[in-house]
Predict the structure.
Amino acid sequence: MRNKKYIATLFAFIGFLTSFAETSNLIGAWKGPKDLMVNLCIDNNKQLYVGYCGILRTYGWVDFSTSLTPDSLIMKSTDIGSPFEGRFKIESGNRLVGKLEMGSPGDDWYFNGNAELVKEMPVMPENLNPKLEGIVNPSDYSALSRSKKMVWEVLSTLDSKSYGYNERKVVERLLTAKNYSLTPEDMIGFRRVRSIQLDARDGIFSYPYFSCRFKEIDGKVFFEKTTGSQRKSGYVYQNSPKSLVFLGGWSVNNDSQTSYGSNNSVAGMIYKIGPRKAIMIFPTTEERVEIYELLAYPKNSDELRI
């Protein structure tokens, strides 16, 4: 493969999976020979697709046409000059075995023979609570650990012509405010929330305050936005002395609430930035993030100041 990078639009087709290899068990990064890495994802229709395929670290990326049958994964390169064809049987949720041919004789990345793909086990970042391993989906590790940084990165792409640019300083103040110690129970009493949505292409969109609440359910603290068309709900967990993790889902209007790990799954970080003010950051994608600005009922007006 040459040094150029291959930018992909990847297509996938899925069939029903056997009981030993349910779709959810296949999500993640799979490593093969010659530093081959295949990243399997799931879309909103619970269909498996290849999010990224590449010969990592050395040779760049390759576009693939992929298909999934009840017991096998088939991939074939659509890049002219970068031959690749792999047919793998799903042995388990951690191992795919089959035939692989990639590259041409003489290429550094050439391989032709029996091969296996082994699922990579992600490592929880140091700034996430290790006690949340098994609770937080590994696919959310990176975004949660970089939540504030992702907001800054989106802000850096905006200019004075971007929609809502005047809200930039508001967002910057929220991000740079002092963080206070907090526990999930400390969030009980926060009753107002407004959404600030940042999009690298479209700008900053701010919404008015709506009602929300934190309450205890079976010994855990549960958050729900109770008014407004776009609503999130889910449980809150201790991450560090000065941060919490939110794991839940989103719904619209009066539709039933959704849970973490569902098609509408949402993960976020919570920081207390004043006596009665907090923010919840949802790092949706590299180009789009959302901030909930949360207010508790104040004892006096000064307590709402950052």
Remarks:
- The longest strand covers residues 230-240.
- The radius of gyration is 22 Å.
- The helical segments are 23-26, 141-145, 147-156, 168-176.
- The first helix runs from residue 23 to 26.
